Amino acid sequence: MPFPHLSIVIPMFNEEAVLPLLADRLRPLADAMVADGVCAAYEIVAVDDGSTDATPVLLQRLRRTWPEVRVLRLRANAGHQAAISAGLARARGDYVVTLDADLQDPPEVIREMLTIARTEGVDVVYGVRTDRTTDSGFKRWSARTFYRAQRALSSVDTPLDAGDYRLMSRATVEAVNALPEHHRVLRFVVPALGFPSATVGYRRAERAAGESKYPLARMLKLSVDSVTGFSLTPLRFATWLGLIGGLAALAILVFALGSRLAGHTLPGWTSTVVIVSAVGAVQLLALGILGEYVGRMYAAMQGRPTYFVAHDSLGEPEQAPQDR
Ligand code: UDP
Ligand code: MG
């Protein structure tokens, strides 16, 4: 097998403080991979996600001394996931790694990921955080809850505690790029594509410099995107409410009619109660039915595969009878 070309996609938003540290650490590693024949060549796709600090200036300066650096600048801040998507759409490598700029994902692992992909013949290698003692207690608790809830709500088998540090083959990247979905959360979309995968554990380090670009509001948005992107459970809520409401309306109807027959009612009360509860139940049920169709349209629009062909013998030579 010829040596592959590698793309390293790095989203960055206002990362002037870490950029020099990242370059100093990543360049020797990447150059060594080429020197050792782990890959034939590499490109760094630095996605500048609309930074307002010196990041673009530093990137241009870096490019003068490090020709493998490609700078993709987004006109405005689009967010971490969108920045990675932009990088994936333009990366040219046979394998593509996505990496955070802040050195929380140790770049040494890239070499291991590539080796695993090539020796085990898998398309995706997930970096799995085995140790996040450097993250704050709240971050760890929220991440833990997030991954477990996601797994419980979605039917996709996602590796636990895998963030966006992963290596993908060209075929995987093409499949991701072909998805029309907005607000996609790549760490769950990639497993949903069903490519053969492996994992590699790593220790999540502390941010090398600067501050987290993920305030609580962004974390919440990521959670909402993850749940709505992978689960129709919230949508089905209306159906269940409609069913429960319908049963309740029926009970109220029986009660109202009973009271009427027993003669304990004011004139007009029975008909009012019956009409109000019946209309309420019908509306909720209709909403639920609508929800089911909306859910189907949503799934169709997401365009994710519903099955994965591993092999098709069409066009292969026929087996001799004795081989059967
Ligand atoms: N990032 C980005 N756009 C954003 C927010 C973050 O490109 O709007 C990048 C950021 O520069 C970093 C990566 O995404 O390279 C992860 O962000 P951060 O380290 O702030 O998140 P945390 O590790 O705190 O969850
Ligand atoms: Mg970080």
UniProtKB/TrEMBL annotation:
InterPro entries: Glyco_trans_2-like, Glycosyltransferase_2, Nucleotide-diphossugar_trans. It holds the Pfam family Glycos_transf_2. The keyword Nucleotide-binding does not apply. The keyword Transmembrane helix applies. It is found in: Membrane. It is a multi-pass membrane protein. One of its GO terms (cellular component) is plasma membrane. Keywords: Glycosyltransferase, Membrane, Transferase, Transmembrane, Transmembrane helix. Its EC number is 2.4.-.-. Residues 7-173 form the Glycosyltransferase 2-like domain. Belongs to the glycosyltransferase 2 family. This is Putative enzyme.
